[in-house]
Amino acid sequence: MYQVRRASRSRFLPIRRLNYHLREWGESRPGEPPLVMVHGWMDVSASFQFMVDALARERHVIAPDWRGFGLTQTPGADHYVIADYLGDLDALLDAVCGDAPVDLLGHSMGGNVVMLYAGVRPARIRKLINLEGFGMPATEPRQAGARYARWMDELKALARGELALNTYATWDGVAQRLTKTNPRLAPGHAAWLARHWACPVRQADGGERYEILGDAAHKIINANLYQLPETLALYADITAPLLAVEASDDSLSRWWKGAYTLAEYHERLKNVARHRVAVIQDAGHMLHHDQPEALARLVEAFLDE
Fold first, then answer.
1. Under CATH, to which class is 9-138+226-304 assigned?
2. pTM reported for the whole predicted model
């Protein structure tokens, strides 16, 4: 089992009519903004533990569980939209930081959120870090009909219970699920993370199974098409320096199979006035699990410039 070097503490805040869970490490230091880190899809705030442990010195780190993930309350919705993540992040920063700027990091879906947020609220961000938050392929208006139809079909499938998340008989089963998705994840790390990624739930027969701490409604596709011109306009409004971090494994090509490429993503980043791209070697999409030490060094150097 992985041994934590820097223990986190938990607290809950009322955010937009939900009980939001925050995980925190370290204490605030005069003149140094907190590092706010937001996780990706089907992940939890504890996912950043390995990276926090790898930091050379203690920092005040704040990481929420997004709505419907981890220990944050599930809103009772049958789908989720990107605007809610923006609104949640805005309210969270108000609650924990007031008007003071923060250093903001996001992974995957969280990376997409922080990129948009930094364009909407540029004065709130001192430095911005995007871990594999690539955005989505460009769309055309003619795709709208099929998108709405798919969204409605998936809502019906959710209501029928067809999109339920898998459950597992043991903690080992949960850990094996994590290593199946990411073969680089060490068994001890997976065993530790499993206990934050799932929870035991009593079954009708009196036994227990382990359920992922995520709402199945997250599997519903967005009803609205991805608006690339809107995204690029928000990128252009970012004033903070951006560090865009990629893994050496090209997960983008694997996902989209030519429909959207790293070259296109790099072209989009040119809309951000001050940005640079860095690559973490021997890492996949979960680069904060695969190479936490290398990522921590890269992030700290950027924050301390």
1. alpha beta
2. 0.97
